[in-house]
Structure formats: structure tokens, C-alpha cells
Amino acid sequence: MKRSNSNVFTRSPIFRVLMVTALMTGLSGARAAEPSIPYTVKPGDKLIVLSKDLLLRPGDWNEVARFNAMPDPNVIRPGQTLAIPVRLMKFSLATGKLISAEGQVLSGAAPAIVGSSIGEGSRLQTGPNSSAVVELADGSRVQLLAGSLAEIAVSREYASRDANGSGPTPWFSGLIRLSQGAVETLASKLGRRATPLQVETPTTIVGVRGTRFRVAYDDSAARDSRAEVLEGEVRADNPAHKSGADLPKGTGAVINPAQKDVRAVPLLPAPDLRTQPSDLTRPQATAWPMPALAGASAFRVQVAHDAQFERIVRDLKVSTGAVDLSSLPIGLWHVRVRGIDAQQLEGYDSVKPLSLKAANRWRVTDSRLVLENGRSRLAWSGALPDGLVVAAGSSSAEVSTDALSAQVISRPTGSANQLDLGNLKPGRYFIRITTAGASGQLVSETYQLDVPGNWGVTVLELASALQPVGP
């Protein structure tokens, strides 16, 4: 959809951002610093004709001529490149999509739906122990952490022509307005941007062309905003004082409207998690120790289902020597830890897989899968942590396609340490066995079962069929 009213653009958030940038550079340098998009002239082009195709108001062709210092606006040559100010150009609205939504996530006033379109004006809110990931139209990804409220204030594409293409080339402009909480952003390095991808809080504007960074506004009383750069470089501006600073990789800054200076500060290095326990029972998980890290006054601890941390279920600030993770369900998790310095800037991450087990978990000591009369039968033996043999009367199991047992496909039952798994097809499965013994129900650790493609054809029996799933 095209817009044809220039007043719409002058009232938009991106125009206000551009005006702040212009004021910061001073009147003499404002025009040179103003965002623009190149257009490569082709044979037969006339500036006044191009203005009808590209500009919100065709009458602004004379401003394009002045912007390019053209002595005669009627004379343009094939191959010549014109710089067209973004604020003058027509645009179409661009949509992204919601990649993931973990926990309580609202899109407007309704529960967010993964895969739904996210465009200009969309508002997302995450509750406690929740997170969401949005992929913008240019491929950039923005993750909202727990307790965040953000709006896609600008999501637009501008069409132009470059020297390498015969057709129109899209240029993206995006602005996220963060009212509270924190976002982690991985800006796409592909495609073209009409303006830097920007995150705006009540006290700062952070702009970037291709990088990974965080922005937070989680202390409304102090009115501090934080920016931390993990890759590339960003510009952090303080509109209240028309000041700012370039933040290179490995630095961050706290921006406060009461303080003029924006100072780049080195981020803390990633903590060493090699000695942290990775295999815990639930009682042990009540006090997972924090690592030693010089300069850290606290730690950020995040727990996710996935190694990419798109499905974060816990986002905790820890100022003591240990964190309580015992509320997590039994299973395999990924933990991400970073130090927080005295200014509350958060440093680089370390990641560690974590296996959480119940205190009464037992382990399989031997297992065998046999095909009998077209049915796969599993025989097993097991032992408790103290070495005592698991003596089972009745037993049952959960057979899943994932290690967290989120996709249970069957719940077979059996007795005498045997289970009938039925008509088991070739593939990878995950099994957790529950036994009913004299001391009550006991649950095994999770085991992986790989059924080969020639099962039932040339292979009728598997020794040591169940293999432990490592953290």
C-alpha cells in the first residue's frame, strides 16, 4: 500500500528521530547527514517524471535537485546516481512475523499466535517467565524478554534503483519503541536499509546498520536506558541533551536524561561456567552456584528450551551467590549467564546445557529390544542412585519424539521389567520409564532409542537399546 500524504510522514516517529539526528549534527552538516537512498538514472529518465514515481509530493523535485547540488535539474545522465532524501519518498508498509512466543505473550489485547504477521503499529507484551521473537521484514530478529512492552513503530519499504539492477530495489526502515523491559536484537546484515534499524526508549535512541545488541529500559524511576553492543557498532543518542556516542563492539552505555554525557564502557567478559554442575536433582537446583567474575555485582541468568535462546522461560537477575532453578520442569535445558557491573551494564554470555532430574531417578543398567510377532518388546533392568536394583512390579513409559517429552506419541504399559512398544517404526525416540515398587513410584532418567531403517527386515534384535541422553 502506497502513501501519498507527506504530513503522515512528518508526524511519524521515524521523522522525529531523523530531526533529532539533524539537530545533533548542526545546521551546516544536517543535509549531509540526512538519510537518503541512491537512485541510478537510466536512459530516458527526467527528474520531474521520476518525482511522480518516487516522491510523496511530486513538487519536491526541486528539493531533490538542491540536495544533489544540481546546477540544472533538467539535465541528468544515464548512470548518474542521485541521492533522494528518505523523508520525501513514497513507501509501502512492510510486515514481519512472530517467530516464537513462550509463556504469556500478548499481541495487542489478544494472545500472540506464532506465525502471525507483525507490522507497523503492532504492540507486543510479555509476562513473567515469558519471551517472544519477532522477525522484521528485512530479516532482523528482535527478542522481547520477560516483562517487556514494545511497539513496531515503523516498518516500511522504499523502492529505488541501483546500478546493478534493472528493477526496483527495496530499502527497509524500522523503529521499535520500547516502553518497558529489554530487547535483544540481531540486525540482519543482508538487504538495504533506508535508515538504521532503531530502538527507542523514553530516554534514548539506539541506531544500527548491522550488528547484535541489547537495549533495556527496566528502571522507570531512575529513567536509565542501557545499550550493550556484542557485535558491530551502534549509535546511542540522548535527545534531551542532543548528545550521544558511538558504541563499538564490546562496549555499553547508560543513558540518563539528567546527564549530558554518554560514555562507552567496556563490557564484562563471559563468565567461566566449566566448573558449574550440569547434572542436578531438583533439591540441588535450589542453589545453582554463580561463577566468579571480577567486576560483577550481579548476574543475569536465562533458561531456554533451545540452544538459540528463542524460547526463554526464565529471565532472572541474581545478586546472591546462587540461583534457584528448582521450579523448572524435569528435563534438559540451556542456561545462559552474564555478569552485571556496578553501572548495571550486562556483559558477554556463557552458555551451559543443564539436565534437571527428580531425586528418585533411577538409571537403566541393561536393555534389549526384540521384535516378536510384529511387535517391538523392550526388556530392561535398572538401579537406584545407591546401587540397589530396581525391582518393578507394574511399569509404564512415555515414548516421545523429543528429549523434553513435549511430543509424547505413546504410553505403553508392562510388567516384570518388560514393555510392549507395539508396531515401532524406524526412527529416533526418547523413553522415560515409571515403575511401581515397594517404596512407591520411581521414574527413570530419559533414554534415547534409535530404531534402524532395516528394523524387522534384517535386524530383529538390539542389545543396549537405550542410551543415556547427555546434558
SSE inventory with pairings:
Layout (H helix, E strand, L loop, with lengths): L5 H5 L2 H13 L1 H7 L2 E5 L6 H8 L6 H7 L13 E5 L6 E2 L2 E7 L2 E3 L2 E2 L5 E2 L4 E4 L4 E5 L5 E4 L4 E12 L8 E18 L10 E4 L4 E4 L3 E8 L4 E8 L1 E6 L4 E6 L2 E5 L9 E2 L12 E3 L6 E2 L8 E7 L7 E7 L3 E2 L7 E10 L5 E12 L5 E10 L2 E9 L10 E7 L7 E3 L2 E3 L2 E5 L4 E11 L2 E4 L3 E5 L9 E3 L2 E3 L3
Parallel strand pairs: 12-13, 21-27
Antiparallel strand pairs: 1-2, 3-11, 4-7, 4-9, 5-6, 5-8, 8-11, 9-10, 10-12, 11-12, 12-15, 13-14, 14-17, 15-16, 16-19, 17-18, 19-20, 22-25, 23-24, 23-26, 26-27, 28-29, 28-37, 29-33, 30-31, 30-32, 30-34, 34-35, 34-36, 36-38
Q: What structural class do the secondary elements suggest? A: mainly beta
Low-confidence stretches: 1-32
Count of strand segments: 38
Q: Major β-sheet, in short?
A: 18 strands, mixed
What is the typical, i.e. mean, pLDDT?
86
CATH topology descriptor of the largest domain: Jelly Rolls
Q: Which geometry do the CA atoms define?
A: elongated
How many separate helices?
5
Strand content: over 45%
**Which CATH class of the largest domain applies here?**
Mainly Beta
Gyration radius (Cα, Å) is 29 Å
Helix content: under 10%
